[in-house]
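debug: dumping io for the single-chain case to check the tokenizer round-trip. Nothing else runs in this session.
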Amino acid sequence: MRNLLRKELSELLNKQMLISLVVSFFIIMMLGTMMTSILGEEMTDSGTVRLIDQDQSSFSQQIIDKLEEDGYTVETGSDFEQMADTDGWKEAVVLPAGMEAAFAAHETVKLPTYTALRTTSTFSMMSSGSSEEAVQAAIEELLADTYIGDDLSFLKEPVDVEPYTYANGKVVQASGMAIVTSLAMFDQVMPLVLFLLVVLTAQTIITAIASEKMDKTLETLLSSPVPRTKILGAKMLAALIVAVIYALVYGVSFLSSMMFGVEQINVGETSINVSEALTNMAEVRNAVQELGLQIPAYAWLGVAAQLVLTLAIALTAAIILGAMVEDAKNSQTASLPIMLCTMFPYILSMVSDIRNMEGAPKMLMMAIPFTHTFVATGCLRFHDMALFWGGMAYQAVFLGVLVWVALRIYSSDILFVRSRKYRRKSDEA
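debug: decoded output
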């Protein structure tokens, strides 16, 4: 039993596994620290309330004092669009002119709220709205302490919130969350499909190459008179075709399930006003078009091209890593760097906006070629064409370098030397 255990451990705990674990350790440390920092900034920003005080009354000053008393940091400005562009405001509440007089007359006040839309990340939108909630709570509490009398029905709903969304230099009267939700079907499904594709196809090709090396079919194939460039090209093309098939199947299945789920909800919930729901959908669609967030049909070809480049990069990297793996047992460990370099951009694209990161964190994320496909739809929706085309060019160059490395490896005799060394060690064990 002891000898068998020693044999199994010696096969699993090898040099390739240790190198992969060390690389993965540093990748997790760097990217994990970055993600923690980003999430910390989101949580810190939730304690700030941004106001545009058009009323300039004693009551609006009481609101500011009340917010500060409750522990909020209050920032004020005169124009939301300007503050969003220069100071990075994500949201703000307008205290409209005549607010104090309207409350004194026991009238409901329309309270405009603004949201700056820079990403389609649902998490970023869920973390917004703190200003609106804090201001509403402060107004209700101040009114309850101020007004005493018989006609206090307006205190049940003293304000009527009017949501506005700002994006691409335009403002529309629509909820930012509703807009993001309408776009999430495409912008959130594609990263998930891409993540699954990269992980599954990389694992598959590394395992296949390891199995070929174990069965000696790869050695026989590389010894044949067929040029090794053609052998490598055939492997990459076959894997890419399979990956595209996976992409089509996954994409159609996800979209179908989401659409079917919506139909089920509409049918099952009898309390839903179908006419109102359709009207809201039409309004949100019009808002998306007015803000310039709609991606033209031809632009989706660019997204598809980036998806193909990403898959080709993952498969080429898998072919290179497969050359370093001696048996199928270590194939899963060998694919770990690819999985991690895909997983972190995927998670970050869900919780934050990678495009608007700054400094070293952004440079690090953009150095990962998979990142550019995760942010592709965001670049098109928010008209960041330089990053979109630059990312595609970077992916093409990165792929060229990987193909060159793969050709060098498979054109040399390193595979035969490693295979013979591994077989001698296996025989000795």
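debug: round-trip ok. The chain has a mean pLDDT of 77.
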